[in-house]
Amino acid sequence: MRNVMRYIIFALMVALTLPLQAQKGVRENVRKGNKAYRQQKFSEAFTFYSDALGENPSSPEANYNAGNTLYRQKEWDKSAESYQQYLSIEKENPKRISAAWHNIGNALLQKKELEKSMEAYKMALRINPEDDETRYNLAVVQKMIQDQEQEQEEQQQQQQQEEQQQPDQQNNPDQPKKPEESPEPEQMSRDNARQLLQAIEQDERETQEKVNKIKAEERKNKADENRRRNRDW
């Protein structure tokens, strides 16, 4: 009976000790990750945060800080996923929750997903209306959306004008057209110029050889004719 009681007590002690050791390991990895992050060793910091999450996937600090390191490494999608994981865990820190939404907005803005970015900033301001930085980012992304819509509208108007002009040109075939611009001559490279010069020189040599051959034949014919005349005379 005593042995059974000792075994039960030992099992309880082990059961209580293991979570404490795991929690200690999480804190240690988060601490190392924070140190590496301050030194801007973001890849190394992410490794420590990942080790912490391997021991406790529900660690709010490890998830949030992992999102920060991924953002610094321009891993926008993975960064937003880490912040979303943090938001699914954290329920008691409004400022940090607002900051997570703010960071999600930044990641989406980097991906040019303006509408989603705007909604993330709005979520951050609902939780922390006094966050001036988020309010500024929201104004920036709203201006970007407005400019984008205006540009699309101008493009549509231009396309409609071009479509309206096409039937007019078809109905007036005699309308003078703009002369086609001739392409500018390509500049000759040194190698091409050298090859062209060599070809010209080769042609000149061949021509000179032909001329010399003709002259030689003429001189020979003239000499033969003189000899014949001398013999006849």
UniProtKB/TrEMBL annotation:
Start and stop residues of the TPR repeats: 60-93, 98-131
Bilayer-spanning residue ranges: none
Record's keyword terms, sorted: Repeat, Signal, TPR repeat
Keyword Repeat: yes
Regions of compositional bias (Basic and acidic residues) in chain numbering: 175-193, 205-233
Signal peptide: 1-22
Compositionally biased residues, Low complexity: 155-174
Annotated stretches, region: Disordered: 146-233
PROSITE patterns from the UniProt entry: TPR (PS50005), TPR_REGION (PS50293)
Protein's recorded name: Uncharacterized protein
Organism of derivation: Petrimonas mucosa
Source species taxonomy: Bacteria, Pseudomonadati, Bacteroidota, Bacteroidia, Bacteroidales
